[in-house]
Amino acid sequence: MADLTKITCLDDLQRIARRKVPKMFYDYADSGAWTESTYRANQEDFQKIKFRQRVAVNIENRNLRSKMLGQDVAMPVALAPTGSTGMQHPDGEILAARAAERFGVPFCLSTMSICSIEDIAAHTSAPFWFQQYIMRDRDFNER
């Protein structure tokens, strides 16, 4: 098991994943669609964000609670839909949905998930979102 106490940034998590996950699964998770231009632009934009360190500041009454799509959330973030999360870990989507529920943030299940909507509903009590890819096959969409 990886020593999670030594993780200080996303690069640390990527190094651990690269060692623990089969290459094709890692490459799938660490990629974007088509030309990957949005993926690269997001990386560049996040690199521009710098946090100003402030010490000895009273944060006792700070609160990140908010609403997203009318739903109360512990902080304004959601676990995004990631297709085939089950490739990374057995029951990956179920574990992610449980984590989102525990931390009070939305979870979104991908159309291309390994687990079904029913699987997630059976293992969580919080409402969750679903990303529907509209396919040409109407019967598939209805199912």
Automatic annotation (TrEMBL):
UniProt keyword Oxidoreductase present: yes
MF terms (GO), sorted A to Z: L-lactate dehydrogenase (NAD+) activity
InterPro entries tied to this protein: Aldolase_TIM (IPR013785), FMN-dep_DH (IPR000262), FMN_HAD (IPR037396)
Keywords of this entry: Flavoprotein, FMN, Oxidoreductase
Chain ranges of the FMN hydroxy acid dehydrogenase domain: 2-143
GO biological process terms, semicolon-separated: aerobic respiration
Keyword Oxidoreductase in record: yes
Pfam family, any one: FMN_dh
Domain of life: Bacteria
Database matches in Gene3D superfamilies: Aldolase class I (3.20.20.70)
Co-factor(s): FMN
GO annotations of cellular component type: plasma membrane
PANTHER family in the record: 2-HYDROXYACID OXIDASE 1, S -2-HYDROXY-ACID OXIDASE-RELATED
Protein name: L-lactate dehydrogenase (Cytochrome)
Species this protein is from: Advenella kashmirensis (strain DSM 17095 / LMG 22695 / WT001)
Lineage: Bacteria, Pseudomonadati, Pseudomonadota, Betaproteobacteria, Burkholderiales
